[in-house]
Design a protein that fits this description.
The protein has about 375 residues and is of the alpha+beta class. The protein is built from ten helices and 17 strands. The chain has helices at about 50-55, 65-70, 120-125, 150-170, 175-180, 215-230, 240, 250-260, 285-295, 300-305; strands at about 5-10, 15-20, 30-35, 40-50, 75-80, 90, 90, 130-135, 190-195, 200-205, 265-270, 280-285, 305-315, 320-325, 330-335, 350-360, 370-380. β14 (about 320-325) and β15 form a beta hairpin.
Length: about 375
């Protein structure tokens, strides 16, 4: 009789609801809880293709559909007595599966949230803020793996969105409080565990240790990150929800979901600091990333960061539409936005107030390039 070993818990609620398993030659299986028989839990088990299991994990495929795709219509029952280390004996069944009462309802999708608190465990061990994230790209169907290019891009995109969430949280502080804080590089995080063994998870730790003020604005920035990712729950209203975070924060989030959509993967994350009672969770499924990318494909205004510059005009070129102001923070240069004002009549050496927007792009090396676009002009 066939046996399998459980390899992964896919859904948990007062017990294991759905699990994945493998037989001795590497065949993939999924088990779904049916009921309790004495002291054991009874599960419906079917064989599945690895790529369909990935789609189940990613929220692209509902459980009922997957179970009904059982090769040759073969399905099994098994009893689990709570000893996860023992192989499970599969009892083949003769009835047609769809005629039984064992199938879940239509539309049962897995959550992307992790069911463990590894982020909190590492935060307490390392006495610092920890953020972990994982992805489920197509190559993960053949095992817990991720392309180096995909992982590298995800690291850059995650660090970028953390940076702008951190800066957004700083702006909420009163100026007198902000002036007492050392915010230099406060957003930076280090990879402390490149990838957990047997997994595609990556753990990041705050580059700066906590100070006398505690876990500071990085933790508040990660709370802001949770608020931004909450838009994934309702893609139809994402544009309105992200309006609150217009600028680099919304823009970095849009770039991230576009990347996830293009690379056919969802992303889940959790974060914690030692004082929390439980880790905080967020993420977006592969299907959610596709929907968000489509909904936000023309949301250029959300990614534009408003900037007010005041200073002396250093140079102006009407033909090319570029300009430079000498401000208290040094020389700031930019171009005219589409439909922006004319540069005719501006005088070098005269003081102006420029209302602009700044857009950020990542270059091939992962460095950010900011371009400032002039929208309107006033004489200071």
């Amino acid at each position: 009789m066939r046996t399998i070993h459980p390899t992964e818990i896919l859904a948990y609620y007062d017990g294991v609801e759905v699990f994945a398993g493998q037989d001795i030659i590497g065949g993939c299986y999924v088990g779904a809880f049916i009921d309790t028989v004495g002291d054991a839990d009874r599960y419906l088990v079917v064989g599945v293709r690895p790529e369909r299991l990935r789609e189940l994990r990613s929220g692209m495929l509902d459980l009922r559909t997957l179970l009904l795709e059982a090769p040759g219509g073969e399905w099994y029952l098994t009893l689990v007595n709570g000893d996860a280390g023992q192989p499970l004996l599969l009892e083949p069944q003769n009835a047609v599966l769809i005629t039984t009462d064992y199938l879940p309802e239509d539309g049962f999708l897995l959550s992307d949230d992790s069911i463990d608190d590894l982020a909190l465990q590492h935060a307490r061990t390392r006495h610092n803020v920890v953020l972990e994230f994982s992805a489920e790209p197509p190559e993960a169907a053949a095992g817990h793996r991720i392309r180096t290019a995909t992982l590298g891009s995800l690291l850059l995109l995650m660090q970028t969105i953390v940076k702008y969430a951190y800066q957004s949280a700083l702006r909420d502080l009163a100026p007198q409080i902000r002036s007492t804080l050392d915010t230099t590089d406060g957003h930076l995080m280090d990879v402390v565990i490149p990838a957990a063994p047997g997994s595609y998870r990556v753990f990041l730790e705050a580059a700066k240790p906590p100070d006398m003020f505690g876990y500071g604005e990085l933790a508040r920035g990660l709370e802001r990150l949770d608020e931004v990712f909450a838009s994934a729950a309702a893609p139809d209203t994402a544009r309105e929800k992200l309006q609150k975070y217009q600028g680099h924060l919304a823009g970095s989030y849009i770039k991230l979901v576009q990347f996830l959509s293009a690379n056919r993967t969802g992303l889940s994350y959790s974060w914690a600091h030692p004082a929390l009672k439980a880790a905080r969770y967020g993420g977006v499924s592969e299907s959610g990333a596709h929907q968000l990318a489509a909904m936000l494909s023309d949301a250029d205004s959300l990614a534009a960061e408003p900037v007010m510059l005041e200073g002396t005009l250093e140079r102006v070129n009407r033909g090319r539409g570029d300009w430079a102001l000498l401000t208290s923070d040094g020389i700031k240069a930019g171009n005219i936005a589409n439909g922006g004002p004319s540069l005719n009549g501006l005088q070098v050496g005269k003081t102006y107030r420029f209302l602009c927007v700044a857009e950020a792009e990542l270059d091939a090396a992962g460095s950010e390039k900011h371009t400032i676009y002039l929208q309107s002009i006033a004489v200071a």
